[in-house]
Amino acid sequence: MSRHQQKKGSAPGGSQRQLRVGEAVRHAMADILAHGSAHDADLEGHIITVPEVRMSPDLKLATIYVMPLGGRDTERVIAALDRNKKFLRGEVARRVNLKFAPDIRFRVDERFDEAERIEKLLRTPAVQRDLTSEQDRDREEEQ
Fold it and tell me: What pTM does this model have?
């Protein structure tokens, strides 16, 4: 096996290096967006969160997950980020010391929606009933 192939037992988010570089790119991108460096009308009215950046194994592609505050206008924000991709890539390259500036692509972070869906599911009467009956059984076993 060559040393550039990813092992099957490695971390789910990638190698330690991928995680470290992804975190550096995330900090740089969050800083760029927080200071309003990208002058675009669609971006200026939004506060954008950058919860995660995933790097490819060769560190040449960064997938940046973003979420506008409140989850509104996600399509417009992604389109604006894509329009400013060249500028944003240059800013990331200036702030993060890498041999090559990674190509960037933007995706909507759907973890918040998924967490909300699970939270609603946990509040359903059927789940609540199962949880209370399980707690009753635990109390009986303790006595």
Answer: 0.71
